[in-house]
Amino acid sequence: MKVSKIYAATVLAASLALGAVAAPAASFAAPAAVSQKKVQGVFTQASVERTSDGKLKIHWNSNADLGAAKILWSTSPDNIAKNGKQLKRINASYNGYVTADPKPGSRLYFYIKTSSGATVTVAERKVNLQGAYNFRDLGGYKTTDGKTVKWGKLFRGEELGHLTDADIKTIQEMGIKTNVDYRTDAEVKALADPVIPGITNIRTDAGNAGSAADLNSMIASGLMKDEASAVAMMAGFNKQMVDSPKFYVQLMELLNDPNHIGLVQHCTAGKDRTGLGSAIILLTLGVDEKTVMDDYLLSNVYREEANKKAIEAVKAQVKDENVVAAITALMGVQKEFLQAAIDEMKAKYGSIDNFLEKGLGITKQERAKLKAMYTE
């Protein structure tokens, strides 16, 4: 069976590079522990989603009646309580508000303050760009020690070569300073990242590791004979990235430098190399494994339409349904992929904490610094 070079390049670029190698997650997990004598009213969940007509649906839940609420918005996640513009006064018991976009073309953050004193900051998980489907914010997730990952400081994305001029303007306004690119030389040659004033592009050690695999050879070898073989292959690649984590060591070094606050990491589809990198960041900051997995699986949500189109193109060329199923598995993410990496961390190092310390070289002091920089 022969597959066109264009098709092979598309699938591989969207899935993996050898040697380099769901439902939307809630922005907030369970509420912090409260006194048994008196329940303290807090927000237990908050989210912002964009509707099909471009409106913003702000939604929240709480563990008690929080009273009157004031919603503020800003293009910066910092000091919204002081600098934000008022959007609406509403009773918190309504659990949400739908609004027209107060500033189209900009990334917005919302701050909800109630008369009872409860507050929460929230934003769209997905950054609303035209040239990138899977560009999103890692903020808003609760940590096991009661903190929250800061919004607007840590981003994950896919290849940036399709960004429009409007997208680039939005990204500049978001305060991103550093762009970490996991892709190989072949991937970069196929579609280089744009040079954006104010943003430093950094290639990781993965950039020159290995070479792109030939999909026809993989099919002929049996690696791509069905979905199960594709899942096993991707699980193996995730284990390999844990065993040889040089570019994640580099990522942690960058994150420890305050000059790089406002960082996006990306590969081609923003789901495999970037998916594990994002998981490592969240685990380092103390986010629980379930929430980390939920974030990982969001790539299936945000890449759904793009993947459908790609798979239809595959079906037009490949008639073996088992091979189509294998390629379909590669186009998305599955729990087994990331779980293989997490299991390898525990098997090889005894625990995730030990992997972070011994595998990535993150000292306890450095981890504490990362938590201070990126959680609140």
Keywords:
single chain; 376 residues; alpha/beta; five-stranded mixed sheet; 16% strand; disordered N terminus
What is the topology?
Blueprint (H helix, E strand, L loop, with lengths): L4 H11 L27 E8 L5 E7 L5 E7 L5 H4 L1 E7 L4 E4 L9 E6 L4 E5 L12 E2 L16 E4 L7 H9 L4 E4 L3 H6 L9 E4 L11 H7 L5 H17 L2 H10 L7 E4 L6 H13 L3 H14 L1 H14 L3 H11 L3 H15 L2 H8 L4 H11 L2
Parallel strand pairs: 9-12, 10-11, 10-12
Antiparallel strand pairs: 1-2, 2-5, 3-4, 3-6, 6-7, 8-9
Helix pairs in contact: 6-11, 6-12, 8-9, 10-11, 12-13
Description:
Strand 1 and strand 2 form a beta hairpin. It is built from 14 helices and twelve strands. The strands form three sheets. Strands 8-9-12-10-11 form a five-stranded mixed β-sheet, covered by helices on one side. Strands 4-3-6-7 form a four-stranded antiparallel β-sheet. A three-stranded antiparallel β-sheet has the order 1-2-5, with no helix packed on it. The chain starts with a helix and ends with a helix.
- Summarize the main sheet: 5 strands, mixed
**Helix/strand order, N-terminal first:** HEEEHEEEEEEHEHEHHHEHHHHHHH
> Which word captures the global form?
globular
Mean pLDDT metric:
88
How large a portion of the residues is in β-strands, by DSSP E? 15-25%
In angstroms, what separates the terminal alpha carbons? 54 Å
Per DSSP, the total helix count is 14
**Overall SS class:** alpha/beta
Spans of at least 5 consecutive residues whose pLDDT stays below 50 are 1-37, 207-212
Radius of gyration: 21 Å
Q: Strands of the biggest beta sheet: in what spatial order?
A: 8-9-12-10-11
